[in-house]
Amino acid sequence: MQAFFVVLNDFSSLGNDLIKCHLSRLMGERKLKVIDVARATGLHRNTITLLYDETAVRVELEAMDKLCEFFGVEVGGLFERTADSSGVAKTGPQP
Questions:
Q1: Res. 25 pLDDT band, cuts 50 70 90
Q2: Higher per-residue confidence, 20 vs 9
Q3: Please, what's the b/e burial string for 28-53 (b: 16 or more CB within 10 A of its CB; e: otherwise)?
């Protein structure tokens, strides 16, 4: 089986996060712990912790799907693209 993943941060720009993960907010609103989400989704605690702390550099599509299903959100409710590599916020598809 082939693994698919999404790159979350661009380290070539030294700390300019391109993707914001809202997992900590979603968990906080529901007063959930990492272990609660791990048990409910079947994901490894480390995967959840990396996303919670926003230190993950990639995430598998299966993990994204499980988290979106568990929290009842679309991908845009879990992740948000905040800027391009120049630090300019993106508002939509660019020509």
A1: very high
A2: 20
A3: eeeebebeebbeebebeeebbebbbe
Nearest to residue 52, comparing CAs of 76, 34, 68?
34
* Helices within 7-94 (DSSP H only): 23-29, 34-41, 45-52, 61-71, 75-78
Residue at token pair 């879990």: 78
Q: What is the pTM of this model?
A: 0.73
DSSP assignment of 3-17 equals: --EEE---GGGSS--
Mean pLDDT of the chain: 83
Of 81, 83, 65, 79, nearest to 26 by C-alpha is: 79
